[in-house]
Amino acid sequence: xxxADALDPPNRPDHLGLLERLIAERACERLIVEFVRRLDxxxxxxxxxxxxxxxxxxxxxxxxxxxxxxxxRAYFAGRPADRLSRRLCTNILVTLTSASTATASTYxxxxxxxxxxGGRLPPRLxxxxxxxxxxFRKVEGRWLLAARELFLDFAGPTERLGPADARTxx
Length: 170
Hints:
Oligomer: single chain
Shape: elongated
């Protein structure tokens, strides 16, 4: 038992009722799904609102570390405007670590091309397969991402479509 749990037993996750635990876990799962929905279908810069004010995005490789909502907003909003991406998330495992903190591990697969001008494209292989390791914190009654670390197991370049690339209207 760590010191915080010994001093504040009601903050321990095992002191939460079943419904409280399920609500907290679901709130964290929803953040994971909302993150990729905003990147793929919304305004990418809006993912910054899913992070705590001091939130952190970090890649295990490549020395990429973005900290704070303003920096996160600028980073994600900097995606190419003609990018088409779809992410699939699976194996989402949320673990409450206290009444106001949690962790999660999520597998993801990213399909992505740049230069998209509309219409359906022929199938492509994924450009990334990996996992997110997340830390969540409840801030003013709302669950937020405190930190997200990205680990890539498979990765390749993002294809840039040219004007002659075939699209199908089927």
